[in-house]
Write a structure and sequence with these properties.
OB fold (Dihydrolipoamide Acetyltransferase, E2P); Dihydrolipoamide Transferase; Chloramphenicol Acetyltransferase; 24% strand
Length: 421
């Protein structure tokens, strides 16, 4: 039976995808759940797996082609897998031999002077009408194996130039070493290369330009004394990790502080749509995460209902999945407010760009020891600059400044987060 491998149904906001890379080639045996091909959308890279056991018969969409939801990517022949299981379960039939009469065999004859092909190879040879001596054997004493036959069939379907390139070169005596070309000075290495823009990178560029063109963006800054949170983490880090199995970072403190600030200033949790302001009565926090393919913003939903451990655990999972290209489309949907932490890369200060259609984004930065005045004395404290970029069309400067002050007060006195002060 021929089974179709199809593109999954994309999220409503995703129109199409691009075939990124095939992990298997036509003629190869695959198992149900095996990774076949990657399809890149403007949000994530999807791993398409084999729906059934069988042989990858035909690739319909090749690398670089644009595909739509539920479009056929390839076909798998499941009969190969079924026949192979039956052949392994049932021993080959042995024909009776009459005295004085030469033996008759239903199996292909071995190559001249060579061993008999393996069971799987014999079946494939018979199905395709091939003689054993037509296929080069790689087994012991030149025995033809099933992979040998599959490789021969795949090479027969490829263009002659490609098939010739895939065959191993014959062994020959090593030629005399040729003189090495003269080394070019580094100053002469002036090459250029052109790299296609990935869908994710193109989407990032589109959204960032859209944010700057369609919103009145303004950034306000403040600085936070991180000493109280640093001391709190130092006291409880080990017990927290033992109890919850996750590291206690800074993100959970800022996430909880953001919830309190969003409650006090609901305009920051809203967005502008035509001639109306749409307010959210829930708090879905986007966490900007760097990945090899670009910046992505997975969403922690109902952040106000999550514990510190839940926030740290889900954030760590998002970071791992973004790094490995395993984020799902649902991970990136929605979000009412975003936090980005450039401090993990060493950024001391920046002006983050709002993630449309949201109206504000909080930027965290590197913690650095700086001299500050406390009670008339100059002391060294771990300080962090924070930035709030906001859409001035719906958020006034007073609200933006007070929002950031609320974040500052909550972080400098973490007890406020527990007491709701």
């Amino acid at each position: 039976m021929i089974v179709e491998v199809k593109v999954p149904v994309f999220a409503e906001s995703v129109q199409e995808g691009t075939v990124l890379a095939w992990q298997r080639r036509p003629g190869e045996s695959v198992k149900r759940g095996d990774h076949l091909v990657d399809v890149e959308t403007d949000k994530v890279v999807l791993e398409i797996v084999a729906p059934e056991d069988g042989i990858l018969q035909k690739v319909v969409r090749t690398q670089g082609e644009v595909v739509q939801s539920e479009e056929v990517l390839a076909t798998i022949d499941t009969e190969y897998a079924a026949l192979e299981r039956r052949f392994e379960a049932e021993p080959p039939q042995v024909l009776p031999i009459t005295p004085g009469e030469p033996a008759k065999s239903a199996q292909p004859a071995p190559a001249a002077g060579g061993p008999l092909p393996g069971p799987g190879a014999r079946r494939l040879l018979a199905e395709h009408g091939l003689e054993p001596d037509a296929v080069p054997g790689s087994g012991k004493e030149g025995r033809v194996t099933r992979p040998d036959v599959l490789a021969y069939l795949a090479a027969r379907e490829r263009p002659p130039a490609e098939a010739a390139a895939s065959r191993p070169a014959p062994r020959a005596a090593a030629p005399a070493a040729a003189p090495a070309p003269p080394h070019l000075p580094a100053a002469h290495a002036r090459g250029e290369r052109r790299e296609p823009l990935s869908r994710i990178r193109a989407r990032i560029a589109e959204r960032l330009v859209e944010a700057q063109h369609r919103a009145a963006l303004l950034t306000t800054f403040n600085e936070i004394n991180m000493q109280a949170v640093v001391d709190l983490r130092a006291r409880h880090r080990e017990r927290f990790e033992q109890a919850h199995g996750v590291r206690l970072g800074f993100m959970s403190f800022f996430a909880k502080a953001a919830v309190e600030a969003l409650r006090r200033f609901p305009a920051v949790n809203a967005y502008l749509e035509a001639d109306a302001i749409v307010h959210h009565d829930y708090y879905d926090l986007g966490i900007a995460v760097g990945s090899p393919r670009g910046l992505v913003v997975p969403v922690l939903r109902n952040i106000d209902q999550l514990s510190f451990a839940d926030i740290e655990r889900q954030t760590a999972q998002f970071v791992d999945r973004a790094r490995d290209g395993k984020l799902k489309p649902d991970d990136l949907l929605g979000g009412t407010f975003t936090i980005t932490n450039g401090g993990v890369f060493g950024s001391l200060l920046s002006t983050p760009i709002v993630n449309p259609p949201q109206s504000a984004i909080l930027g965290m930065h590197k913690i650095a020891d700086r001299p500050v005045a406390e009670n008339g004395q100059v002391v060294i404290r771990p300080m962090m600059y924070v930035a709030l970029t906001y859409d001035h069309r719906i958020i006034d400067g007073r609200e933006a400044v007070q929002f950031l002050v609320t974040i500052k007060e909550a972080i400098e006195d973490p007890a406020r987060l527990l007491l709701g002060l």
